[in-house]
């Protein structure tokens, strides 16, 4: 099992959920409003007067064999709207309850 952490502009919310549904990733946790700034490009998303955009984060745990296809779909979504920003990170899951 792998944990996939997705940080993205809130405008991606519905599209990310559509991808998770498409890949049968039923379980996830969404963190509604998070702030941040990309490490290489893009504007900060701080929810302030100067930087009003906001991010969100979604964490899902999926079978390891699904990860490459999910990441490719997320990459394609990011490339369609590269000014919004979307990043995904993958960790190994040691155990679940």
Task: Tell me about this structure.
- By secondary structure, the chain is of the alpha+beta class.
- The chain has a single domain (2-92), classed as 2-Layer Sandwich (Alpha-Beta Plaits).
- It has 2 helices and 4 strands.
- Strands 2-3-1-4 form a 4-stranded antiparallel beta sheet, covered by helices on one side.
- The radius of gyration is 14 Å and the shape is globular.
- The two termini are 13 Å apart.
- The model has no long low-confidence stretch (mean pLDDT 90).
- InterPro entries: N-reg_PII, N-reg_PII-like_a/b, N-reg_PII/ATP_PRibTrfase_C.
- It comes from Tannerella sp. oral taxon BU063 isolate Cell 6/7/9.
What best-fitting shape do the alpha-carbon axes yield? globular
> What gap, in angstroms, lies between the N and C termini?
13 Å
Order of helices and strands: EHEEHE
Largest sheet: 4 strands, antiparallel
The helix content is 10-25%
Count of helical stretches: 2
Strand content: 25-35%
Q: Count the strands? A: 4
Integer count of domains: 1
What is the CATH topology assignment? Alpha-Beta Plaits
Rg from alpha-carbon coordinates: 14 Å
CATH architecture name: 2-Layer Sandwich
Low-confidence stretches: none
Secondary structure class reads alpha+beta
Average pLDDT reading: 90
Give the CATH level 1 class.
Alpha Beta
> Taking strands numbered 1, 2, ... along the chain, how are they ordered across the largest sheet?
2-3-1-4
């Amino acid at each position: 099992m792998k944990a996939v952490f997705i940080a993205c502009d809130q405008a991606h919310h519905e599209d990310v959920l559509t991808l998770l549904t498409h890949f049968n990733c039923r379980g996830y946790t969404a963190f509604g409003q998070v702030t941040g700034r990309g490490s290489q490009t893009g504007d900060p998303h701080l929810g302030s007067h100067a930087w009003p955009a906001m991010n969100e984060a979604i964490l899902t745990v999926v079978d390891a064999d699904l990860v490459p296809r999910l990441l490719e779909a997320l990459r394609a979504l990011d490339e369609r709207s590269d000014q919004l920003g979307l990043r995904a990170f993958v960790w190994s899951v040691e155990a679940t309850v």
